[in-house]
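Please decode residue identities from the backbone states below.
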């Protein structure tokens, strides 16, 4: 019976609802450039996946999505939202004042960007494994950070 329960646990999808965000690298143990097999070895089976390279690990209201380059099967983008995700410098999502903490930490490295539709994000550019990368922070009311994207340029 114990073996059967262990086997069923391996088949059950994994939910990622917390973790550390490492700017210009990754989150919750997943880094840019990892293979699909490495992601699954690290996190387990996603709750949803599709042919376009999406591996979903969050459960509403949390978002933890890993996007693969379908040609190389490697992580190209990570999307994160949830109150239990924090940067290595303890800037936690969905908490008042997060944007101010980011501005204090990154100063001139944090660049404001305004999209065609008026959406505002703040980005930090960096390099990872010799490639240009970005970390994008989407702010909301009270200076909260509501979503983070980490990806290749």
């Amino acid at each position: 019976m114990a073996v059967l329960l262990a086997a069923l646990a391996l088949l059950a999808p994994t939910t990622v609802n917390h973790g550390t965000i490492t700017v210009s690298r990754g989150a919750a143990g997943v880094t840019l450039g990892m293979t699909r097999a490495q992601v699954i070895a690290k996190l387990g089976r996603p709750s949803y996946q599709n042919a376009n390279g999406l591996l979903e690990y969050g459960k509403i209201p949390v978002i933890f999505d890993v996007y693969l380059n379908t040609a190389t099967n490697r992580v190209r983008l990570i999307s994160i939202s949830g109150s239990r995700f924090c940067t290595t410098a303890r800037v936690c999502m969905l908490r008042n004042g997060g944007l101010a903490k980011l501005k204090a930490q990154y100063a001139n490295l944090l660049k404001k960007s305004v999209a065609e539709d008026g959406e505002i994000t703040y980005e930090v550019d960096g390099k990872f494994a010799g490639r240009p990368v970005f970390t994008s922070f989407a702010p909301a009311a009270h200076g909260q950070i509501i979503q983070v994207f980490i990806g290749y340029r």
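Observation: The longest strand covers residues 120-128.
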